[in-house]
Queue: 3 jobs
Job 1
Amino acid sequence: MNWDLTSYFSGFDSADVAQFKASLESEIAGLQSRCAQITPIGADTAGSWEEIFLEVEVVWQRMSHLGSYLGCLTAADSANEAYKAAEAAFATVSAEAETLEVDLKRGLREASDADFSAFAQRPALAECGHYLSRLREEAQRTMSPEEERLAAALGVDGINAWGRLYTTLSGKLEFDMVYADGRREKLPMAQRRSLMANPDRAVRRAAFEGGNAAWAQVEDVAAAAINAIAGTRLTLNERRGVDHFLDVAIFQASTTRRSLDAMFEAIFDSLELPRRILRLKAQAMKTSGVSWYDLEAPLPGLGDNEEVIDWPRAKEIVQTAFSRSYPRLGSFVQSVCDRNWIDWEPRANKRPGAFCTGSLLTRESRIFMTYNGTMGDVRTLAHEAGHAFHSYILKDMRAYGHFYPMTLAESASTFGEMILTEGILADAAVGAADKLSALDSATAQGAVFLMDIPMRYEFEKAFHEERSDGEVEVSRLEELMTQTQRRIFGDVLDEGGEDPYFWASKLHFYITGVTFYNFPYTFGFLLSRGLFAEFKERGSGFLPHYEEFLRLSGSATSEQLARRILGCDLESPEFWKSAIETLRQPVERLETLLLHRLEPDGVGGDEEEG
Ligand SMILES: [Zn+2]
């Protein structure tokens, strides 16, 4: 492993890991029995509840420390059975710790408004107001504590088991890859995605078709899982008094229905812009439109002769870009590299994907990724560094101020990516091909966030509506998926170019802990474009406000933050429209560069000004 994990523990086999876990378990058990004996928050119990809240806060800090450590180890060496066993044992501790939340909610739910506001104003709970109000709001939509405990216990073999079944299924599923020369190969499903981003269209199509044939073999299992997961949620919503299934997702995203509707209204009014990105791709491929398997492909001519960027150069590109417009971010990334906080090397048994994790005890972060030398990997580094910087800005906030939603987390990471793109385009040391590649991946993201993700949201919404009336058959799932893709992508998606099995192959529909694991990405993407536009307009004087936005991300709603930092109303489509509009200039620039490049003697292109 490349990263230094010694600030977590001296080593995995050391006695301090076992001791840490044992004392955590006994703290949780002690808190559980104390909670069981206390009546809801009131004048006479406020002091005891304050102690409980403060101790639970420490439990969360310690949980994040151990959980982050084990997460790092299993990601970096997923074949290590000892790590896996330790992570499974930790899941049991997590489930116990989560029952503490049931108790906290019971304490808050039955408190009167006056008792609650007196409680939230206690000095020891300063800067917890947002957290407490949210927990109390959530508590209004719960069953009795006994029923909640039963639901949690049954969930291990119910909804969560369906999620695990799906993970096992997709992990073991193999597909037939048939190459142009007739060669056949059985490949694990995990390799399909990178083949579908291959510069060669025939390779992409073969991976797409082979993959879907494999999914067709297990369609009934996937359909049973997606139906059971949604069905459980709908039943629990009804028992908990939740009016609409979207309310849960909106609460988790810490936003409002009006903001979500305003965002989608703006997106659906502006679909022509992201469609233009795909039209450009079709033009470059010399096809009438794109197929599903073209969505992740680089522009023709970019992916095949892309030069490998070595790791020291990747760090340099990110640091130069960051330091140019945001020196504090640049020096932060420098220190992340100097302190060996990144596991980047491609190695066998590394988990796919990338993430940023951290400990609320040490207030340090770690970045996990597999660096293969592409511009896309450089972008991943900037993305994860954006997350790490978010944690760095939050480091002096109490643990209860760290529970920020995914919407705001993704704003921080996308902000990092935007600074990177801008820096690359302005950097004379970066060649024209790399610049074009950076612009391609930045605009391609626009198509993902403004069409692909909204499509997933629309599908999931329609599926939940139909699921309320009973199980949804495989044929209907396919139909619903195809229709939704047609509606969002329009004529830029070739007739027959849809992916009818996307509901089965996309893991995000099977994540049991978070519902509607899609729109927060688009929300964060657009919000960060709004922040970035403000930064461009106001210059470096805006950066302290940006940092305030990050610092308060766990202490206010998205609407409150946008009003305070940007003076914008997220509940109005205007904000979202102007955020979408910021994509127009890069799209036009790419069009110009590409058309120039497609001309016979324009290969390589001229240096573009920043
Ligand atoms: Zn992210």
Job 2
Amino acid sequence: MKNPVVAVVSPKGGNGKTTVSANLAVAMARLSAPIVVDLDVHFGDIEYAFRLQPFHRLDSAVVALRERPQEGVEHFLTLHPAGLAALCAPSDPVSADYLSADEAFTVVDALIELERPVILDTAGGISDFTLGALDRATEVVMVCGTDVPSVQAVKKLLETMDRLEMDTTHAHLVVNRSTARCGLSVADVELATGRKAALEIPEHQSLAAGMNQGCPVTESDPGSSAGAPFLKFANSLLGVDRNRSSKFGRFAKVDA
Ligand SMILES: Nc1ncnc2c1ncn2[C@@H]1O[C@H](COP(=O)(O)OP(=O)(O)OP(=O)(O)O)[C@@H](O)[C@H]1O
Ligand SMILES: [Mg+2]
């Protein structure tokens, strides 16, 4: 099984990056022990997605690692019973302003060295935090809505990555709200971006409810039409055979 570094990006805000990050993390936790890092440093919401009460956050972890490098980085993580761990964003935008991307990546790089899957949730736009995530990613998950601005932004992101000579062969298109009635079809999004959708996420109230309740749908209802696609996608990112059973023996049900 691989330990991918997954950057979850989308140039436009509100397209579903945190929803994808949280659900992927729970899905991966069935086979592995993923770490989610919230790089949306100003307004990160991974802590709400999992109803966490972090002791350490990205900014305090940077300071602690600088002062006590011998203690390692694992104790900065907030544990979740699903078997994943998170490093949450600073508590407020003012604290975040004191944190540079270079400093943040001292901690992120140390987490990557733990050889566990790492999911990097990012903010909209292409900040230094997002560029740092793209630089380190072995898999880039581009979350795209079915509206024209969203699709155009993903196209521009791919062009920008090309110009920066970043490898785009591991960039996966995720079409969110694929069933939205007034949106483009998945085929249209694929045509416009020149990528095949690796994951199609339906518009479903259980996804929104899960995020509001701090319990992603992959945890509350993994076999549902909203949850199951994440499990398959997580498998492929982990490089796991579809038929392999999970550590809890539940994979067969959703992969059938
Ligand atoms: N497929 C979906 N069906 C229903 N609701 C969804 C779906 N995807 C996302 N949502 C909801 O849309 C809102 C925005 O999603 P989310 O916070 O994941 O986006 P984001 O890209 O992380 O936003 P930001 O750029 O602000 O970080 C949330 O309330 C989420 O629950
Ligand atoms: Mg978000």
Job 3
Amino acid sequence: MTSTASRPETDAVPDTWLPEPPELLAPWHTPARAALQEQARRFAMDEVLPVANELDPQKGEIPQRILERLGELGYFGITIPAEDGGLGLGVFEYCMVSEELARAWMSVASILARSQGMGTAVADPQRRADLLRRSAGGSWIGAVALSEPDAGSDLANVQTRAVREGDEWVVTGHKRWCGNAKAADFIQVLVRVADPEPGESRSRGLRNLLLVKERGSFPAGLSGYPIDKVGYHGFLTWDLTFDGVRIPADDLIVEAGGDGDSGAGFREAQKFLNTARVHTAARAVGLARAAVEDSVLYLQEREQFGHPIGDFQALRFALADMAAQVEQARAFYRQVAHLLDEGLPCEREAAMVKLQATEMAVRVTNQAMQQHGGNGYTTERQVERHWRDARLTTIFEGTSEIQKLIISNKMLPRSPLS
Ligand SMILES: Cc1cc2nc3c(=O)[nH]c(=O)nc-3n(C[C@H](O)[C@H](O)[C@H](O)COP(=O)(O)OP(=O)(O)OC[C@H]3O[C@@H](n4cnc5c(N)ncnc54)[C@H](O)[C@@H]3O)c2cc1C
């Protein structure tokens, strides 16, 4: 496009990036995946983006009609088997759709992570099947309460207690950062049911309980307040106090193939975090892509020194660097999603892609804001939302430092002196 071409509207979407032309499709990018990607992109740009532009500045929540559309499209059950009502696809497709949704509004991509069969691993097979079907349809959307005021990076330090009284657990403690808690149908709560013996791992005695609740309210004994965040609007993130909350004994998440005790909750949380890290990488790619696409438009729209600023080589080269970084992170998250779908061990790679993609998103959204000049530092432009949301991605689902810890621990034994 030449500098004299008619300028697109600021909110128009450039079609210079995606969809990828069929003749350039990589072998893994099958026609079925390309069609799913195109469907998700259209939904995100036509239906989610306008809502994000309206509601994010008001710190609004994802409206019911968007949740219903996600249900109609089957996106709550992308990874749920078809016989259980899902789309029967893999982490690859889940991440691909999430990238598209995050390009419009990260929280909509995030709400998908509160379904996909989460909170369905109960012991009774019939109940599990019923919950899976509800999860796929969007009537079993949850929240995850792992973190506590003194257990963030150090999850093994969870102090919330569950004490068995007859056929119930009684839960007491303080959870922090629980996204979607009040709007959820259930909260998966990481609790301590026993103390480790001296010399045992601190993660022993941790289990995941399933607190079934009504949407829009808290059950007896549970209270909380929404934390005022910098970004990531679309759903509220709660500080929760459990004061003798009663949970039926059967509402316990069971670990596939586990011994049913001894740190099962911690291992479940780790497995959940591997998929969550790749999903976070995909969301980061969506945010960075949004920033690049916004920059492509702004560089043509804004004139200084008698030229569109996109004529200046410094900005053109910065744009090229930004786009190349996004493509690199996308290729990496798709590779790790493939490993997960193949059931291959990939804890190190999941940590690597989370680290690399989220740090990239911070850099790229920051650079896009710079290219928008003063307009970038206003709420009149979308680039500030991408920047605010990208900033979170290096913190939640395990900070960048914790990813580096995981990667280096897999590569380098510590000496007995450390
Ligand atoms: C908006 C938002 C939404 C969230 N949603 C949820 C949710 O839905 N459910 C949930 O359970 N949690 C949620 N979290 C919690 C999130 O996962 C934690 O914030 C994150 O794991 C970091 O923990 P922390 O905040 O306690 O930081 P800390 O663990 O206190 O870390 C502080 C700093 O110390 C560094 N650090 C800590 N330990 C080490 C170490 N060993 N080596 C080097 N550096 C270290 C960290 O990298 C960081 O820079 C959310 C958080 C936010 C901000």
